[in-house]
Every structure is written in C-alpha cells, then in structure tokens.
Amino acid sequence: MSDLDAIPALHRDDIESVLISSDRIEAKIAELGARMSQDYTGRDILLVAVLKGAFLVMADLARHLEVGCSVDFMAVSSYGAATSSSGVVRILKDLDTDIEGKHVVIVEDIVDSGLTLDYLVKNLRSRKPASLELMALLTKPSRREVDLPVKYVGFEIPDVFVVGYGLDYDERYRNLPCIATLKPEVYGAA
Ligand code: 5GP
Q1: C-alpha–C-alpha distance, residues 70 and 125, integer Å
Q2: CATH of domain 22-160
Q3: What is the domain partition of the chain in residue ranges?
Q4: CB 168 near ligand 1, within 6 Å
Q5: pLDDT recorded at residue 50
Q6: 19, 88, 112, 115: residue to mutate for ligand 1 pocket, most atoms within 8 A of CB
Q7: Torsional sign, CA 27, 33, 39, 41
Q8: Which of 109, 121, 131, 184 is most buried, with most CB under 10 Å away?
Q9: 168 C-alpha to center of ligand 1: Å?
Q10: Which of the residues are catalytic?
Q11: What is each CA distance from 92 to 51, 104, 129, in whole angstroms?
C-alpha cells in the first residue's frame, strides 16, 4: 500500500506529499515509549496532552508505556495568525489534577516557535511537580524562538505547514494516519 493509499479517500486529493508515513510514526512512538519506560522505571508518570493536536500521540504513547501512567489534558489557544503562533497563550481548559510531587511529561504534537510550550512549562513548573519533561512528535528547529529542552523528540521537520496524526488545518485532517503537506489551493478554499 502506498502512503497516499493510507489516507482516507475524502482527503487524498488535498494532499501534496506525505512527509512521514504511519509506519514510521508507529515505530517512533514505540521507541519513545520504550525509552520513557526505562527512564521512569519504578515511578508513575502523569502524561499531560496539549489539546487538540496531541490526542493521537498521547493515545499511542500511553499504550507503549510499561510504567504506571495517568493522563490529563490542557487546551490552550494562541492569539494571532492562523498558521503561526503569536506567543500569547490563553488556557482554555486547565488540568483536572493537582500535579504537585508528580512526574509530569507534557505531550505535544509539534514544537514550532516553542512559545506555547515555553509558557506551559513555566506555568506547570510553578505548580511544583517532582519532575517535568517534554515530548513532541515533531519539531521545527529552524523556527525556534526560545531555548526549550525537549527530551523526547519524534522527528525534526523543515519549516513547512503539516497536517495529520492530530494536526489540523481549519479543524480538518486530524484523522490522517500520516504527516502530510497540503496542496496550496486547499488553503484558498477554507
Ligand atoms: P509554537 O508555540 O511552538 O510556535 O506553536 C505550537 C502550536 O502551533 C502547535 O501546537 C500547533 O497547534 C501549531 N502549529 C505549529 N506548526 C504547525 C504545523 O505545521 N501544522 C499545524 N497543523 N499546526 C502547527
């Protein structure tokens, strides 16, 4: 089956290219899950997914953990242009859990400028977790504006706008099993 065949027919014509296939994503998340399980041996992890984009990463990562794990979710929104982050972050949904004394791993879909995660790290650190680490499926190093130590990184990608595996454009394409770019004309149609 080609990478494009794995994409639901409804969206196939909108795709310019498949950057990372679902097989590669699966293998990478399994690898990160194994690493994390080793690193946290004997300790429980609280995974904090940043909604909405990280919902699939979180679900797949959790299934590869061999240590105790609980999950919680935050939703944030940044003001500004549709396809870039302004760095002003608003919490739309806060955690349900008190994280004091817990080993927290923030799970992100993609780190672009890094401003969203930088804000979240500062915010969560003030709540006194026992430890706080970051995991991101994707990172765009050339776009980074803040120095952010992301311990668990899936893939480094160039400065292109991607969709799929949780990532949207105009709330669509989150259900693609791979990471892909869209044809330019799709942006005009939204
Ligand atoms: P940052 O604060 O690191 O600049 O932005 C992070 C957020 O911007 C991500 O969580 C995601 O919502 C959005 N974002 C950044 N790059 C992309 C991209 O290539 N595709 C999509 N769909 N969202 C992106």
Answers
A1: 18
A2: 3.40.50.2020
A3: 22-160
A4: yes
A5: 94
A6: 112
A7: negative
A8: 109
A9: 9
A10: 112
A11: 10, 20, 21
**Is 114 a pocket residue for ligand 1 (Cβ < 6 Å)?**
yes
Q: Please tell me if the CB atom of residue 118 comes closer than 6 angstroms to any atom of ligand 1.
A: no
In sequence order, which ranges of the chain are alpha helices (DSSP H)?
A: 9-12, 22-39, 55-62, 115-125, 184-189
**DSSP assignment letter at 141:** G
Q: Distance between CA 12 and CA 81 in Å, rounded?
A: 26
83 pLDDT higher than 60: no
Regarding the beta carbon of 65 and ligand 1, being less than 6 Å apart is answered no
Q: CA–CA separation, 106 vs 71, rounded Å?
A: 10
**pTM to 2 decimals?**
0.93
For the stretch 100-144, pLDDT in tens is: 999 999 999 999 999 999 999 999 999 999 999 999 999 999 988
Q: How many CB atoms lie within 10 A of CB 138?
A: 24
- Please work out whether the CB of residue 136 comes within 6 Å of at least one atom of ligand 1: no
Distance CA(60)–CA(22), nearest Å, equals 12
The per-residue pLDDT for range 20-32, each reduced to its tens digit, is 999 999 999 999 9
